[in-house]
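Q: Is it fine to ask for two folds in a single conversation?
A: Yes, each is treated on its own. Send the first.
Q: Here.
A: Result:
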Amino acid sequence: MNPVRRVEGRAYPWGAKNIDTDVIIPAHWLKTISRAGLGKGAFETVRSTPGNIFDDPRYASAPILIAGDNFGCGSSREHAAWALRDMGIVAVIAPSYSDIFSGNAVKNGIVPVVLPQDAIDRLVEVARTDQITVDLETMTVTTPFQDRFEFSLDPFRRQCLMEGLDEIGLTLARDTAISKYESAVAAERPWLSRETKHAGVAVEGTGRP
């Protein structure tokens, strides 16, 4: 996972509320276990309407999506976060999210920014013509017009995003400590080691070798 410290660029000025994961990525795309290519299916039903915002050339490859309340509700499919990331979205700005989607977003390098509705309305207005910046260093969303909106994020999630650590990365970052612990356990309790020879040793409570 790539580190995310600052996201700057055009934003989809959508603002739609109660967008569930089936809208983000329809169920027939869930047959794959690969993240690559899911961006093609993102917002498929919305894109079926001529003149939709996601096919508007003004917002092509926009790294930010501005949405409404309860974004990512519905099923817990992680494919929703995969699809957003594959289409190039690195930050979503909304008043609220489904808890599961918010967690999946962070695990896949997407910043879930929470701002009040009045800030969303202003950002939708600005995004129609200008860029927006999401900064994890200062925890702010800013515009070229001196708008500055502060947001909060769980410190652990912020650290994971800024250091590019998913669950695998977090485990690998503790490789030295894990190896030390395993070595200590092997020395203290050698019978737990997979290499221990059990032949002829009675198993406690069974009387059997």
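Q: Second one now.
A: Result:
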Amino acid sequence: MKDLFGKAILDYQTNNSPEDLITETSISEADEMSVAYLFRDFKEMPKLEQKALQLAKGKVLDVGCGAGSHALYLQEKGFDVTAIDISENAIKACELRGLKNCKVSDVLDLDPDTSTALSKTNQNNNKFDTILLLMNGTGIFGKMNNIPKFLQKLKSLLNEGGQILIDSSDLIYMYDQDEDGAYEVPANGYYGELTFTIQYKGENEDTFDWLYLDYNTLQNAAIANGLECDLILEGEHFDYLAKLTHL
């Protein structure tokens, strides 16, 4: 990966002539996205994200932190928050923004029992009370068959009584309906399995998988992996926030 998404974030943070990102999926045409949106403060965030931050408790892990806006808000509120992202450029930007504890890492590579804890406090425990996966947090799962390994990993990183706060959208509305009202979704696979392409400053990122999950599918997957799933809030565009906890 060329890390173009992270490059855009770092360009914006360092005033290095940032440009809009061009995003395109397997079911939608190219669309422009302002990098400034990733630097929004709390009052500019969608209600789902605001609600997730309001529900945060204890020691927090922000997975796929991007520009770090969620983690920074919690840090300013006094939380012990750790932010991770696979993008080196994004983590550089987070550090420049003043995020104290951020790291280039894939959540699947985190070891809950490691002696080298991510958090700068509680050095013997790499588990968390709140794990955030926001801005379509299910996206990092990539494909349906990856869901169990991600949910099992996230569950292993939770302290007793901990919570996973994750958002996504039901993309069924993007498909046409036949005369009987049935949605014309692909015959093979799940309709929320997309491929994503990003373009920035004339460069194209390698195409990657990205998963949108309807709530019922997430709930069924959670239960199958030993997690309770509660619907916390529904947005205006088929989006929702869910809370996953130990059964």
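Q: Anything structural to flag on that second result?
A: Two points. Helices lie at 4-13, 47-55, 69-76, 88-96, 147-156, 215-224. The longest helix spans residues 4-13.
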